[in-house]
């Protein structure tokens, strides 16, 4: 009887211990967060991914990050795999915001929340939140920088300008364009700014995949067709990759020399190569979107979703993805040029001195 009682007692303790362990591991599991990024081809997306992993791991979460190398079917497949694995939340910086409707619906069917990261995902109510910068304001800053530097408000001119747009399948590219044109169009209409190529519509100036080589080729064509006898004074480039392609083209025909200075060239993303270019008096400015801050906002949204807490947003009226108004947290971008790069880029820790030398 004693042996039998001891066996029953031991069995009870073993069962209790196993039950407690199983229960505890489920409660203590912080969860896994899927992160779908467009590509490593642009420096900024790799930084975004690294920052996101850092922030989420600080909060105790596991991460599954995938880069799709700008291939939409690959990104869809990666997100489907995350759904199959049963991740708890997916953060998505889409390649094509119009192409993810079906896979987002699959996530919704599995009760997996979706946070759109810097690019709005369209045509589905399965997007729960959106973390981004004020992308219209990015374009406003770029256009305003050109206006102020050329002193157009003082009726200086006329000046020659050429326009570039971002990827046509990136929803943000149109925000950048519309913001910039809200500033530049009145001066184009008045004749103070002349677009000699005649190419001003977004579909005429868009650069697929934000590709610097494609921007260089387009700039080559514009220069040979319209500027053999004229000097170009400004180029609206929506991001740094396109700006650097424009710089390469212009240098190829003698700009940036003692005989012919570079025109004003805008940019965006504060990539190391562009900060170097700015310090070399080639690219003129960039719009800095501190992705450390953006990653922190997105990670906070994820954490609040996981804890079933209210998710902090500051804009519930602007971003309609054709299915719903997506609650959004907007961050403010910053203009950076040779005058303030030290404070904004280096002192903030975004880049180091070694990165830009």
From TrEMBL:
- Print the keywords alphabetically: Signal
Recorded GO molecular functions are: carbohydrate binding
Q: Which PROSITE patterns match?
A: PROKAR_LIPOPROTEIN
- The principal location of this protein is other
Question: Would the keyword Signal turn up in this protein's UniProt record?
Answer: yes
Alphabetized Pfam families for the sequence: Peripla_BP_4 (PF13407)
Domain of life assignment:
Bacteria
Q: Where in the cell is it found?
A: Cell envelope
Q: What PANTHER family has UniProt attached to this entry?
A: D-XYLOSE-BINDING PERIPLASMIC PROTEIN
Name the NCBIfam families for this protein.
ChvE
> What's the protein called, per UniProt?
Sugar ABC transporter substrate-binding protein
Upper classification of the organism: Bacteria, Bacillati, Bacillota, Bacilli, Lactobacillales
């Amino acid at each position: 009887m004693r042996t039998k009682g001891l066996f029953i007692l031991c069995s009870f303790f073993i069962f209790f211990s196993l039950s407690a362990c199983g229960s505890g591991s489920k409660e203590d599991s912080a969860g896994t967060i899927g992160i779908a990024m467009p590509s490593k081809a642009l420096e900024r997306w790799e930084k975004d991914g690294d920052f996101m992993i850092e922030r989420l791991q600080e909060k105790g979460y596991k991460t599954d990050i995938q880069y799709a190398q700008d291939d939409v079917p690959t990104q869809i497949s990666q997100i489907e795999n995350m759904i199959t694995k049963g991740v708890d939340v997916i953060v998505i910086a889409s390649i094509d915001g119009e192409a993810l409707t079906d896979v987002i619906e699959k996530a919704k069917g599995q009760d997996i929340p979706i946070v759109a990261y810097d690019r709005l995902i369209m045509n589905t109510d399965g997007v729960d939140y959106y973390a981004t910068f004020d992308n219209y304001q990015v374009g406003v800053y770029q256009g305003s920088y050109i206006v102020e530097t050329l002193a157009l408000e003082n009726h200086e001119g006329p000046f020659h300008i050429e326009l570039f747009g971002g990827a046509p399948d990136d929803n943000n590219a149109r925000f950048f364009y519309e913001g910039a044109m809200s500033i530049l169009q009145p001066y184009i209409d008045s004749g103070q700014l002349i677009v000699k190529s005649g190419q001003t519509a977004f579909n005429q100036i868009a650069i697929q995949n934000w590709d610097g080589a494609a921007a260089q080729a387009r700039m080559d064509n514009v220069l040979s067709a319209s500027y053999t006898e004229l000097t170009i004074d400004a180029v609206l480039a929506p991001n740094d990759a396109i700006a650097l392609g424009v710089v390469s083209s212009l240098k190829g025909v003698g700009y940036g020399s003692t005989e012919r200075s570079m025109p004003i060239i805008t940019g965006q993303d504060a990539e190391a190569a562009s900060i170097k270019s700015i310090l070399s008096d080639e690219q003129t400015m960039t719009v800095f979107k501190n992705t450390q801050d953006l990653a922190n906002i997105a990670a906070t949204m994820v954490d609040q979703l996981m804890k079933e807490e209210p998710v902090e947003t500051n804009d519930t009226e602007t971003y309609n993805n054709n299915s719903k108004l997506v609650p959004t947290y907007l961050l403010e971008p910053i203009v950076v040029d040779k005058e303030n790069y030290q404070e904004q880029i280096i002192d903030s820790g975004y880049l180091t001195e070694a990165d830009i030398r």
